[in-house]
């Protein structure tokens, strides 16, 4: 188990980014992780696992630099500020902070949901993208997508519809429930799918349907997410969110998504 007050340092950058928020998944890899103290703050900004211009022409370098260094960086800074003075909360993992927001003190609940959610969502997002991405998944994930969405086109259409239907800022997700069922849903602002199990925020599209099907105690974990905040695309695409979402499918890191699926579905 990774000590909460220790940042991660490893030669495998992607593994370090993953381990920052998902120590359980990181423990499944064979990559040794050396924990070294670099800060007294509970959470640190994981490095981008590729160069700022790696996703050109689909996402431009300046957008990636501002998105990672400034926006994600601010979520981490403000999460640490919200936790300061709450030693009981500082000991918790990011997942523990987010998966039951109603258990958080009211004075810091919104700050932790917004900034902790921003840290969680973006830490995953960088790894879900690759300059060698795109195409379609293979193997078990491909068969699961066919099972729940008819085929890849059905999946792509539903995720696109969710991304374009999100009013204002938020995310569209492919998630897996604890019953292994795959679903598409959209969350507002920096709400995360892992917060849905014990009472979804009222603005989360799809949450009511999930509750109706499973009750309120089923946990959903994201496999793939599209950030549809304007900060993710405005420099290149301005108001053309459909063009950004279409380009997103050219850089999906299906190897990473498939690896997450296999670990969570097994
Ligand atoms: Fe973002």
TrEMBL record:
Transmembrane segments: none annotated. GO terms for molecular function: metal ion binding; superoxide dismutase activity. Residues 137-260 form the Manganese/iron superoxide dismutase C-terminal domain. Its EC number is 1.15.1.1. The keyword Metal-binding applies. The keyword rRNA processing does not apply. Residues 43-130 form the Manganese/iron superoxide dismutase N-terminal domain. Mn(2+) binds at residues 67, 122, 227, 231. It holds the Pfam family Sod_Fe_N. Residues 1-26 form the signal peptide. PROSITE patterns: SOD_MN, TAT. It comes from the Bacteria. GO terms for cellular component: cytoplasm. Keywords: Metal-binding, Oxidoreductase, Signal. InterPro entries: Mn/Fe_SOD, Mn/Fe_SOD_BS, Mn/Fe_SOD_C, Mn/Fe_SOD_N, Mn/Fe_SOD_N_sf, SOD_C_sf, TAT_signal, TAT_signal_bac_arc. PANTHER family: 37S RIBOSOMAL PROTEIN S26, MITOCHONDRIAL, SMALL RIBOSOMAL SUBUNIT PROTEIN MS42. Belongs to the iron/manganese superoxide dismutase family. This is superoxide dismutase.
């Amino acid at each position: 188990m990774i000590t909460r007050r220790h940042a991660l340092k490893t030669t495998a950058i992607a593994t370090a980014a993953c381990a920052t928020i998902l120590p359980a998944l990181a423990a499944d890899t064979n990559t040794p992780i050396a924990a070294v103290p670099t800060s007294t703050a509970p959470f640190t900004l994981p490095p981008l696992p590729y160069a700022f211009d790696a996703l050109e022409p689909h996402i431009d370098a300046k957008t990636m630099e501002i998105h990672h260094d400034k926006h994600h960086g601010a979520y981490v800074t403000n999460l640490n500020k919200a936790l300061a003075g709450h030693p009981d909360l500082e000991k918790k993992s990011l997942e523990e902070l987010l998966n039951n927001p109603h258990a958080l003190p009211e004075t810091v609940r919104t700050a932790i949901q917004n900034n902790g959610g921003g840290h969680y969502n973006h830490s995953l997002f960088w790894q879900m993208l690759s300059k060698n991405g795109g195409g379609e998944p293979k193997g078990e994930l491909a068969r699961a997508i066919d099972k729940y969405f008819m085929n890849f086109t059905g999946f792509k259409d539903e995720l696109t519809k969710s991304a374009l239907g999100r009013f204002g800022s938020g995310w569209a997700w492919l998630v897996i429930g604890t019953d292994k069922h795959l679903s598409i849903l959209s969350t507002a602002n920096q709400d995360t799918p892992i917060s849905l199990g014990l009472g979804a925020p009222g603005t989360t599209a799809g949450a009511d349907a999930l509750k109706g099907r499973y009750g309120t105690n089923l946990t959903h974990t994201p496999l793939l997410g599209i950030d549809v905040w304007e900060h993710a695309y405005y420099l290149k695409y301005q108001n053309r969110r459909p063009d950004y979402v279409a380009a997103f499918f050219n850089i999906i890191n299906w190897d990473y998504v498939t690896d997450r699926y296999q670990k969570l579905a097994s």
